[in-house]
Automatic annotation (TrEMBL):
Top-level taxonomy: Bacteria, Pseudomonadati, Campylobacterota, Epsilonproteobacteria, Campylobacterales
Classification via HAMAP family: HldE
Record-linked CDD domains: RfaE_like
A GO molecular function held by the record: phosphotransferase activity, alcohol group as acceptor
Pathway annotation from the record: Nucleotide-sugar biosynthesis; ADP-L-glycero-beta-D-manno-heptose biosynthesis; ADP-L-glycero-beta-D-manno-heptose from D-glycero-beta-D-manno-heptose 7-phosphate: step 1/4; Nucleotide-sugar biosynthesis; ADP-L-glycero-beta-D-manno-heptose biosynthesis; ADP-L-glycero-beta-D-manno-heptose from D-glycero-beta-D-manno-heptose 7-phosphate: step 3/4
Pfam family membership, one: CTP_transf_like
Protein name as annotated: Bifunctional protein HldE
Catalytic center residues: D266
Amino acid sequence: MKILKNFTPKILVFGDLMLDHYLWGSCERISPEAPVQVVDVAKETTLLGGAGNVINNLVTLGAKVSVGSVIGDDENGKELLNMLRSIDVDTSNIFTLKNRKTSKKSRIIASSQQVLRYDKESKEQILDEEADKILNSVNSTICSYDAVVLSDYGKGVLSGYFCQKLIELCKKNSIKVFVDPKGSNYSKYKGAYLLTPNKKEAMLATGVDIKDKESLKKALLKLKDICDLDISMITLSEDGIATYDNELKLFPTVAKEVFDVTGAGDTVIASIAFAFSANRSISEAAGFANLAAGVVVGKIGSATVTLDEIEEYEAALHKSTSDAHIKSFEEIKIVVERYRKNGKKVVFTNGCFDILHVGHVKYLQEAKSFGDILIVGLNSDASVSRLKGPTRPVNIAQDRAYLLAALEAVDFVVPFEDDTPYELIKMIQPDTLVKGGDYKGKDVVGTEFANELKLVDFVEGKSTTKTIKKIQGE
């Protein structure tokens, strides 16, 4: 995850752009003119849809995105271009056509229930000369991109001629092409690196009824053959992702709660392309896509995902390594701000935690019970030596931090150099500050920055000092 956070790939997206328009309101009566609901519209929202949702996901992941497409020379087209430019997307490869309507899907939502959708769009396949205009516009810059994504919504931009010419251009420049396909004719994607059809789409394209591992493998191999793919992939909704390069691999889903699957496919193709751009393996990319999709299906409506959200989600599933939970002062500040925005209660405690024992674990478990997120400040080696004497610590700070971060009760560990965590507490401003029961009646550093102080009794007879004496035979 840290490698992905430090990486800003350049990704070029081609596909069907559209506007997702929502009219939100309530319904309390039936029209006297016809047996239909009367919706009292309270607000309107417009979002990027189609390939625009893939672009949105790539942007929020941290990619630098360019887009190639055709839209209508109309007000919807102008609005779409402005929305793309507002998120710093390069639109120089988008062409407007006078005889084309920019796709706009309008949904009427009454009391959180969609009651009607109406579309304005053109679905005719673009002409070969129109495809050539887009191809010519990217010909000289194609080698500067880390990946190319084709987001096909069946609205005519990704014609067979265009797809094949583009894939040929990309292969010539050693650039991987990732495709979110549409329809049943996958021959137009031949030569792509990877496709991301869902189970239903894969069955339609291959004619294979996927009902077990054998039929799944058969469908993956058929896709690989039809499209001459480097890697074959099928997304399996609640069952995760299946891939085939040299063998069948299954990556189970990691979704905790599913509120809405809208846009999950866009998130998968975006995260797969992003991970491969950072030279991740297929196993890493599929795992990353599963996590991203897990975040998105927990939201309402077409949604995007950030690397921070994926990191938090992975931590909540206890699937991340200890390294991901060890933070610097600068990193923990950003983390705390993010959790606070989501209404989470932050708990802080600190200590040396030299030789981890049951007393530490029970103390930290109780500390975590006071809120949602437990942050542990950890004394540096020099700090421990000043407080405990020249023979301490027994374990270096890096090892102590790693062990603490592996505990289920601990969300984040932040090492500090001073003898007290005053500056760290001042920065975090925890909802709850936790200290040991031996601080009863004493001043506790940093209480002025916390909403409350909680004292937790230690487990009788358990301490690092006693453990050391026992080891030494005293």
